[in-house]
Specification:
The complex is a heterodimer of chains A (about 280) and B (about 575). Chain A is about 75% helix and about 0% strand. With about 280 residues, chain A is mainly α. Chain A is globular and about 75 Å long. Chain A starts with 8 loop residues before the first helix and ends in a 6-residue tail after the last helix. Chain B contains 28 helices and two strands. With about 575 residues, chain B is mainly alpha-helical. The chains are: A mainly alpha (about 280), B mainly alpha (about 575). Chains A and B meet through helix 1, helix 4, helix 5, helix 6 and helix 7 of A and helix 2, helix 19, helix 20, helix 21 and helix 23 of B.
Chain lengths: ~280, ~575
């Protein structure tokens, strides 16, 4: 990749030009996320940099919007709802999803293709269609507007992610380990918890993280399946952005970016651990 | 083994030794350790492992079928379902069978309609029916609403005259004695004496009366059951609707000699039959026209008839800018054709977004695939962070950036490129949607492209160059064709995600930058035309599944990768 010493001027221009273009694209990717962080400390109710902020005057900055977030009833309620819904949905997706992924990775599974297509479908079908269908169907059976309904809907949306990550981990799983455990006298349950589970755990956890973030970020389905009692954080942001746009949203957004960074770091750690456990060299 | 006494030869059951002996002894098929034929034994173990796998999958499959597939099926069903007309106006629909389709229908149809509407008003179903038919012909909603307020008075002339003959006809008990099945009267009396929490026994009609007085008996049964269910009232305490009096008089006029059972029922019906011939009968159709003269409009009746089937293609026709009229399928008037444009716009904008993602994603993927691993991993964070950041965070960032008083316009004005007076309008239009969605979907393009480019051996490029190709030729003739699968995978993924997007177009799209999904949401939550929403959704779903099938053919669903 390095520039050859004998490169012509044209090649040099292209080489540096290309890097500048890539730099601009990276800027396009990351700048919108970074720009909201300083704006969330704005002392004014504006969505742009005030002259005081540009002059780095401490008076231009304040924690006012964060205080708003932590004292406003609506926002606190929304946060608690999110924290109540996402873990429950994750638990359902992970427990059922892991079992099914183990089943799917067996050597002889009838109708494997069809089953896989059905299990992956919540990820493929556009959210608005899932939301519409769930709204119609859940109102028929009385789940519309209930906590339980939202949890079930979010669990269904998270399942494809669990299936994909766990089956990917199971591809690298050495089956002779379970046979060895059985040979040493362990029953299937003991084998699962003592041998298989620790080895596929990184996959399960990262699948769980995906499921969690799916539910935690989800807004379309909860808008339809939920009612005012299930207002989640994204829902509150959505209404905030649509109706009276308040800078508190930027404070919330900044906090959420922090959570994303945390999740990303956790996934990376898990990926490395999984590779080490499976004896693959870390790339 | 606990049984230490037994030597190796004394074990019974499935041991390798025994199996060997069995195999030597038998000259038939090869046997497994337990003495079964090997083939059967293998088949059994295969069956078991299949069953075990299915048992592990079953709970999740059931869960997805119930929470996800059933809702989708429900939506597909709703896009053709149309039972509301035949359920709310069953008698009218039957009576309309004989209608010629052009003139105002005759008295029997109107009489059936009074009955149906009386029940519908009691169940508060007539406004729902009105708004349903209003999707097809405007004005029907207010017509039904207005009629619903006046329909309980139709038949009052007849009622007054009947009561004039004998005041007993005002008593609910007289009607019950005439109409109800004797067994039901007994059961009802028992129930009334018990004072339980149970609901009153369901009303049953006297068979003989049904035969003799078909119209009034049918209406009375509908009346009795409706008030039992809707008001938790008893027919023994409620005076029937005026229209039942009207129907009774008509029945009596058509009836020859009074049957035995009726004459013996103890109600003053004989005297009523005598008097019925001389009654002054009001015209039901005239009463309807009095309430609203739209009832003389054959189009209203045509709409009711056209949508009387329990299933309809009407919603799908609506979704492609056609409509079902009494004269057949027609295009919507020019000013009401919205969905064709909207579908085209959705496709066009999704293509535009996919195109911009290829343009922006290709160089990045190439750079990541060709840099040293350590640097590439660091730069990968810049791709993954937006990927992991909440959709609403990114959308709100764009809202902040693109506003007329927002950061981008401020910078442009400050740097002197723009005059303060002509700040760019970049939000609440198509531009806003394309910019924000390109940003949001870009990682979905970069990641598959990157994983394909990772597999392209750099020695191919070196080989091409050593054979005399310039950098450009080597790229176009060697590298680019090898990266096409990545472009295909990324494009289909981005395109599938883009055509179903709702949140971002809703927030930054204004009116000119919205997608078909926004219209679906509008029909579900604002206009409440669920059927049309379901039909639009079904079309969108079909489109996505087609693309998904293509994706599966090209890439394979098993190859979907998450986060690199």
């Amino acid at each position: 990749m390095a520039l050859a010493p004998y490169a012509t001027t044209g090649q040099r221009i292209w080489y540096y030009g290309f890097r500048v273009i890539c730099g601009l694209i990276f800027f396009f990717l990351i700048a919108p996320i970074l720009v909201i962080i300083p704006l969330s400390f704005n002392a004014q109710d504006f969505f742009t940099f005030t002259p005081k902020m540009l002059a780095l005057d401490p008076e231009g900055y304040s924690l006012k919007h964060y205080r708003d977030f932590f004292t406003s009833n609506d926002w606190q309620q929304a946060m608690w709802n999110s924290l109540k819904i996402a873990p429950a949905a994750t638990l359902i997706s992970v427990s059922l999803g892991t079992l099914a992924a183990i089943g799917l990775s067996q050597s002889h599974v009838p109708f494997r293709g069809a089953i896989m297509a059905i299990l992956i479908s919540p990820m493929i079908v556009p959210l608005i269609i899932s939301a519409a269908g769930m709204y119609f169907f859940y109102s028929r059976i009385g789940l519309q507007g209930t906590y339980f309904g939202v949890v079930l809907a979010h669990a269904a949306l998270g399942i494809p992610f669990v299936i994909i990550t766990v089956t990917a981990t199971l591809i690298g799983f050495d089956r002779s380990l379970t046979r060895a455990a059985a040979n040493l006298g362990a029953g299937p349950v003991r084998t699962f918890f003592k041998v298989q589970m620790p080895l596929i755990l990184p996959g399960v956890v990262s699948g769980g993280l995906f499921a969690f973030i799916t539910s935690f970020d989800e807004v379309v389905v909860v808008l339809f399946v939920g009612s005012a009692g299930q207002t989640t954080l994204p829902w509150q942001m959505f209404t905030g952005l649509r109706e009276q746009i308040s800078p508190t949203i930027l404070a919330v957004a900044t906090l959420l970016v922090g959570i994303s960074i945390l999740l990303l770091a956790m996934l990376e750690v898990l990926r490395r651990r999984s590779e080490r456990l499976r004896g693959l060299s870390p790339s | 083994m606990s049984d230490a006494v037994a030597g190796p030869d004394q074990f019974t059951g499935a041991t390798p030794d025994n199996a060997l002996r069995n195999a030597e002894r038998a000259d038939g098929p090869m046997l497994a350790a337990d003495g079964r034929p090997l083939k059967a034994s293998l088949a059994r173990s295969l069956r078991r492992s299949k069953l075990r796998a299915l048992l592990l999958i079953a709970p999740l499959l059931l869960f997805i079928l119930l929470t996800f597939i059933a809702p989708i099926a429900d939506m597909l069903f709703r896009s053709v379902e149309n039972q509301i007309v035949s359920e709310t106006l069953p008698r009218t629909v039957i009576a309309l069978d004989k209608w010629d389709g052009e003139t105002v229908p005759g008295e029997p149809v109107f009489l059936a309609l009074v009955g149906d509407l009386n029940i519908a008003v009691e169940r508060k179903a007539h406004t729902r029916l009105g708004s349903r038919l209003n999707y097809e012909t405007t004005g029907i909603s207010s017509l039904f609403r207005k009629t619903g307020r006046g329909v309980d008075e139709i038949g009052e002339t007849a009622m007054e005259q009947v009561i004039g003959v004998n005041a007993l006809w005002e008593e609910p008990a007289t009607w019950v004695a005439l109409m109800a099945d004797p067994d039901w009267i007994e059961a009802q009396a028992e129930w009334a004496a018990e004072e339980t929490e149970r609901a009153e026994p369901r009303f049953r009609l006297n068979g003989a009366v049904e035969e003799a007085l078909p119209l009034s008996a049918d209406l009375y049964r509908a009346f009795a059951r409706t008030i039992q269910v809707e008001d938790e009232d008893s027919p023994t305490e409620e005076e029937p609707w005026p229209v039942i009096y009207r129907a009774l008089v008509q029945d009596l006029a058509a009836l020859g000699p009074l049957p035995e059972e009726l004459a013996a029922s103890g109600v003053p019906i004989a005297s009523l039959e005598e008097a019925a011939g001389g009654f002054l009968m009001e015209d039901v159709s005239a009463a309807f026209l009095d309430i609203d003269e739209d009832w003389a409009d054959p189009e209203v009746w045509g709409t009711i008839e056209a949508f009387s089937d329990p299933y309809t293609a009407g919603y799908f026709l609506g979704a492609i800018d056609r409509q079902l009229t009494p004269q057949g399928i027609e295009r919507q008037p020019e000013n009401q054709r919205v969905y064709g444009t909207l579908f085209l716009r959705t496709l066009w904008m999704s293509l535009l977004i996919t195109g911009s993602c290829i343009l922006l994603g290709y160089p990045i993927a190439w750079l990541l695939a060709n840099l040293p691993v350590r640097t590439a991993n660091l730069l990968m964070i810049l791709v993954l962070l937006p990927f992991w950041t909440s959709l609403l965070v990114r959308t709100s960032a764009w809202k902040v950036l693109l506003q007329q008083q927002g950061v981008i316009n401020d910078i442009l004005v400050w740097s002197g490129i723009l005059n303060d007076a002509n700040r760019l309008v970049m939000i609440n239009n198509a531009t806003g949607t394309v910019i924000a969605m390109t940003h949001i979907l870009l990682p979905f393009m970069i990641l598959p492209l990157y994983s394909v480019m990772k597999t392209i051996d750099p020695s191919y490029l070196r080989a091409a160059k050593s054979l005399g190709a310039t950098n450009g030729t080597a790229f176009w003739r060697v590298y680019f064709p090898l990266s096409v699968p990545g472009i295909g995978a990324g494009s289909i993924l981005v395109f599938i995600l883009a055509i179903g997007y709702y949140i971002t177009p809703e927030l930054v799209g204004g009116t000119k930058g919205v997608f078909i999904s926004n219209r679906i949401a509008y029909h579900i939550s604002t206009s409440l035309n669920w059927g049309l929403a379901a039909a639009l959704g079904s079309i969108l779903l079909a489109l996505v599944l087609l693309l998904y099938w293509l994706y599966d053919r090209i890439v394979g669903i098993d190859n979907v990768k998450l986060g690199g």
